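Quick one:
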Amino acid sequence: MFTVRLADFPIEIDNKYDFVKELCVDYLDDAPPLFKVYASEEEIAKEMRTLSGTCDGGKVSKGSAVPFTVETSLEGYAESICLYREICRILLQKDVLLFHSAAVMYRERAYLFAAPSGTGKTTHLKLWMELYGRDLKIINGDKPLLRLEKNGGFRVYGTPWSGKEGWQSKCSSLLGGICFLKRGENNRIIRLPTEEAAKEALGQVLILKDPALLLKTLQLTDKLLRAVPIFLLHCNISQEAARLSFAALTGEELSAP
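Output:
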């Protein structure tokens, strides 16, 4: 059992497997917890059945969404997913939204890249790192948390659940914009109206069966899409694609080296 701080909330985790604490080591905290989460054996077993197709011999593979530099059993990985789902369920009621995306910080503003798995989100992030690495910090590579601020903006927080590359840092920054990615032979970017952006965004949030929580998710997502500019980038894997998204999101341009 241990406490972590996520989205500025101290949370107690009652874990069964050591992997969970290893995963969360950068987020350990000694403040009195606001709430406590745990995963039952039944929940873990159900998650293991879901994961069995991505794992080999009871071990998490490199193709899974966990940093493969950390060796863990399937049970430990399954528990970590169950725990994060419960954390997100409770935090949702405190105006915190899980948004499946890669989050970077550039000059005190956070930017999100969102796309269905396998579309090239990680590749695009690597291109930003190549071009703007000196001024860039990765907040999270896969599952950051977004907290609604009193002024209507959103703050992006790093979490230990960060994808197979393990790109994450215990930091936060105000959100400056979101870019949805789609594969294309030619690079082009457009700003999306809220209604069209909603179709893309609903594929990146955690959809819960509870009607009240579903309504809360939809309300927060709507506020998110109205808080910052939203773009759709049709892109290949060239630096030109990264320059397009950079100019649109930040309002700056960087000349070719």
